[in-house]
């Protein structure tokens, strides 16, 4: 129970070593603990300890992402229904992240050009992805359902949907316009904890997560599958079909192509281009 101000390099290094050797925490947890100690000493205690920066940061294991085959994707989507099935198809067909799909607004789905504009994605970047033509009819039906919710909110004079803070100040009525309405609105209203305003938010993300978790065993899939696996499968299947990696990088919104390169390991391993010496021996 010694105060951190009275401890030094020996105690901190001993603590970090204990995390790695005894508790066997992951590299991410170890890095989080080290970052917390740096913040404590520099920002809270106002003590600059140069030796802290010399401690080796453990490298995070670079793991191959779980990817479903096209048959597994087809089987998974076949046992899903309703809005969650449409969302799963949309995420796989575009490579969008979970919240990018949930926060999709009416104005950003361009049926004429068959594109979707992803706004303020990871890294606060916008990007353009394809709109799968096979989803056009069902997305049009979803648009009609969203329109009904929007009209009900307008007739009830409810608050508009959430818009970025700067725009909300400049254009107070922007959240009530049809273009800014959610493509996948929640069926119920909820209170914004920050402003205290009751309004309609987008569909809760756990709806899709729960539906996917239930569908995976029904489809006979034994590998670990999450919503993000749809994005991994999208990238892998594009590369397998011959799409160049730069295009896949742009569609995924990766800043560095090295992030996209990890999918090449999956493609190469599953392509069968390199024959096992055992197979050659059996010929």
What are the salient characteristics of this protein?
283 residues, mainly alpha, three-stranded antiparallel β-sheet, two-stranded antiparallel ribbon, 5 strands, globular
Largest sheet: 3 strands, antiparallel
Task: Quickly give the structural class.
Answer: mainly alpha
Gross geometry: globular
First-residue to last-residue Cα separation? 69 Å
Low-confidence stretches: none
- Got a strand count? 5
**Helix-strand sequence:** HHHHHEEEHHEEHHHHHH
Strand order of the main beta sheet, please? 1-2-3
Approximate strand percentage = under 5%
Instruction: Tell me the radius of gyration.
Output: 24 Å
Number of helices: 13
Mean pLDDT across every amino acid position: 88
Helix content: 40-55%
Annotate the secondary structure layout:
Layout: H1 9-21, H2 27-44, H3 70-78, H4 82-94, H5 98-102, E1 109-110, E2 115-118, E3 127-130, H6 136-155, H7 165-170, E4 190-191, E5 198-199, H8 205-218, H9 227-240, H10 245-252, H11 257-260, H12 262-271, H13 277-282
Antiparallel strand pairs: 1-2, 2-3, 4-5
Helix pairs in contact: 1-2, 4-8, 4-9, 9-12
């Amino acid at each position: 129970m010694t105060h951190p101000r009275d401890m030094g390099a020996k105690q901190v290094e001993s603590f970090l070593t204990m995390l790695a050797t005894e508790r066997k925490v992951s590299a991410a947890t170890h890095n989080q603990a080290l970052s917390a100690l740096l913040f404590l000493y520099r920002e809270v205690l106002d003590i600059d300890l140069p030796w802290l920066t010399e401690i080796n940061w453990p490298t995070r294991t670079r793991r191959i992402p779980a990817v479903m085959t096209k048959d597994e994707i087809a089987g998974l989507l076949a046992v899903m229904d309703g809005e969650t099935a449409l969302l799963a198809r949309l995420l796989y067909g575009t490579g969008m992240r979970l919240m990018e799909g949930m926060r999709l607004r009416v104005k950003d789905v361009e049926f004429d050009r068959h594109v979707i504009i992803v706004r303020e994605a990871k890294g606060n970047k916008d990007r353009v992805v394809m709109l799968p033509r096979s989803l056009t009819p069902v997305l049009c039906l979803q648009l009609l359902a969203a329109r009904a919710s929007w009209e009900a909110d307008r007739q009830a004079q409810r608050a508009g949907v959430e818009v970025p803070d700067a725009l909300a100040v400049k254009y107070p009525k922007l959240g009530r316009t049809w273009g800014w309405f959610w493509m996948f609105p929640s069926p119920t209203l909820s209170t914004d904890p920050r402003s205290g305003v009751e309004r309609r938010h987008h569909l809760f993300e756990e709806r899709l997560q729960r539906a996917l978790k239930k569908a995976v065993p029904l489809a006979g899939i034994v590998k670990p599958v999450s919503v993000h696996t749809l994005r991994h499968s999208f990238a892998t299947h594009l590369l397998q079909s011959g799409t160049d990696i730069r295009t896949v990088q742009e569609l995924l919104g990766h800043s560095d192509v090295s992030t996209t390169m990890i999918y090449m390991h999956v493609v190469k391993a599953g392509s069968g281009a390199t024959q096992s010496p055992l197979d050659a021996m059996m010929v």
